[in-house]
Design brief:
Blueprint lengths: L4 E9 L4 E7 L4 E5 L6 E6 L2 H12 L4 E2 L6 H11 L10 H5 L1 H5 L3 E2 L8 H11 L3 E7 L2 E6 L4 E6 L9 E6 L6 E7 L5 H12 L14 H7 L1 H6 L3 E4 L2 E5 L6 E6 L13 E7 L4 E7 L16 E2 L46
Antiparallel strand pairs: 1-2, 1-5, 2-3, 3-4, 6-17, 7-8, 8-9, 9-10, 10-11, 11-16, 12-13, 13-14, 14-15, 15-16
Helix pairs in contact: 5-6
């Protein structure tokens, strides 16, 4: 596209892959779908304004101006081509046998590729025999724990703006919902895996009435972000932490939603790419979602694409704990409280 066209006018992410619009030198405009070697023309237009208008109609708020960002393969190829001749790597047998290792480099986990979420769900169910699935519709898979108090819903072909994951816990099979979490289909695989692993580790059980978050428990929950040095800002009801790297990402905490532990409003939002209001991916958590205790732990981790680090090891769920216990977020074990990360802000009561 960069060599055979005048250029791409617009691009977007449709929830699964990159789409773009460009114009050939002969004046023909096209819609493009996919990345790298699977990119293909889906529509052809004689008029550039007509192509642009249709692109805006299809992808609405996801549309971005200019050329789409380079993919991992395109970046690796550009680095090789731009290197001085003496520095260009000489292919070896080992490099030919393992091209993925040759292209791997360290990236923030929040900038990693989405990966195969369907394979993640299948691996989770295969490793945890106390969960069973059924498929009420072609587009949806439901996974229930044998207690019938934990539930995962996976939408196989989530459209732009939809969530592919919805996870929830209940007091009992017929009780009130205690917490919920959602994730978009573009969420990096390791972050979605961390959410599922919290269920497999036994941290997902509903523990009865939940207490509102205090300054102390919030400081514990956001300790990984403070350790990493993500700057903190306060805007009205939101407390936000943003990444220092070139790749945009952040965590926001809704202080008003946190005062309603069993409410339906999202308390935590984890996001990456673009802007907080129109992110490439997002995960939204209620106050006492098991993944909420350390929202920055997996965001600050670093990994090699193709050889990702896993957050936790799968292990069977223990028996459900006493429902009289109280569920409050805690930070990483062994660390003393660190309330200074809140800048002495007092949560509304």
């Amino acid at each position: 596209m960069r060599h055979t066209h005048h250029g791409e006018h617009l691009h977007a992410h449709d929830g699964w892959t990159t789409v773009a619009i460009g114009t050939y030198q002969d004046g023909k405009s096209v819609h493009l779908h996919g990345e790298d070697y699977v990119r293909q023309e889906t529509m052809v237009y004689d008029s550039e304004p007509e192509a642009v208008a249709e692109f805006h109609r299809q992808y609405t708020v996801a549309v971005r101006p200019g050329t789409a960002p380079l993919t991992r393969i395109e970046r690796a190829a550009a680095e090789v081509l731009s290197a001085p001749h003496a520095e260009k790597p000489v292919p070896s047998t080992a490099q030919t046998a393992a091209p993925a290792e040759r292209l791997s480099k360290m990236v923030p986990v929040y900038a990693a590729d989405p990966g195969d979420h369907e394979a993640l769900l299948n691996d989770f169910l295969a490793a945890n025999g106390d969960w069973e699935k059924y498929r009420p519709h072609d587009e949806t898979t439901i996974a229930n724990h044998e207690s019938l108090a934990l539930r995962v819903e996976f939408l196989h072909e989530a459209a732009h703006g939809d969530n592919s994951w919805t996870v929830a816990a209940y007091e009992s099979p017929v009780g009130e919902r205690l917490w919920h979490a959602t994730a978009t289909p573009t969420t990096p695989l390791e972050i979605a895996e961390a959410l599922l692993n919290s269920l497999a580790s036994g941290n997902g059980w509903g523990l009865g009435a939940a207490a509102a978050v205090t300054n102390e428990t919030l400081a514990e929950a956001t300790r990984p972000l403070a350790k990493t040095g993500w700057p903190q800002t306060v805007r009205a009801r939101l407390i936000e932490w943003t990444a220092l790297d070139a790749e945009p990402a952040g965590v926001s905490f809704d202080t008003v939603a946190a005062t309603k532990p069993n409410g339906s409003t999202d308390t935590w939002t984890l996001w990456g790419g673009n802007t907080p209001h129109q992110p490439t991916w997002s995960v939204r958590l209620s106050t006492h979602t098991p993944a909420a205790p350390a929202p920055g732990h997996h965001l600050r981790a670093r990994l090699r694409p193709g050889a990702p680090e896993t957050a936790d090891q799968h292990r069977p769920n223990p028996d459900p704990p006493d429902h009289a216990a109280r569920h409050t977020p805690t930070g990483e074990s062994g660390d003393p409280p660190s309330s200074h990360t809140l800048n002495d802000r007092v949560l509304p009561r």
